[in-house]
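wait is this the right file?? whatever heres the structure
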């Protein structure tokens, strides 16, 4: 019962990357965002894309209005086997996403406000 909003860029060049790996990386982030909203009334996750021709950089943003992440946990979020989902999480999703993006020359960063939500930003260089 989480609203999922897709906001694609009006234009996006054809990009070269491993589609299965990139799908896994973004899906891990998206699934975490949906899980974070599960107990929130009016849960909402937005996923958007944009492309900067000047920088030759694709961007994906995943923004949720879920529970947010405690400041003490922000430094640990990409560590293997760290999960705050109890028995529902393995602690592998975000480290795997980070590794996939790094292998593609990209990166992932996040901002979070406890009780308000989290914003993940993925950047991926390209040759368009």
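ok assuming it is, sequence goes like this
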């Amino acid at each position: 019962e989480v609203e999922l909003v897709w906001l694609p860029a009006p234009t996006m060049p054809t990009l070269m990357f491993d589609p299965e790996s990139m799908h896994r990386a973004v899906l891990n982030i998206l699934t975490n965002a949906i899980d974070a909203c599960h107990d929130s009334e009016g849960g909402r996750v937005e996923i958007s894309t944009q492309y900067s021709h000047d920088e030759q950089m694709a961007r994906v943003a995943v923004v949720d209005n879920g529970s947010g992440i405690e400041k003490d946990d922000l430094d640990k979020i990409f560590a293997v086997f760290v999960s705050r989902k109890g028995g529902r999480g393995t602690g592998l999703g975000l480290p795997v996403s980070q590794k996939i993006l790094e292998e593609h020359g990209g990166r992932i960063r996040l901002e979070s406000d406890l009780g308000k939500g989290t914003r993940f930003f993925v950047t991926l260089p390209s040759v368009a």
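The mean pLDDT is 88. so i think its the right one actually
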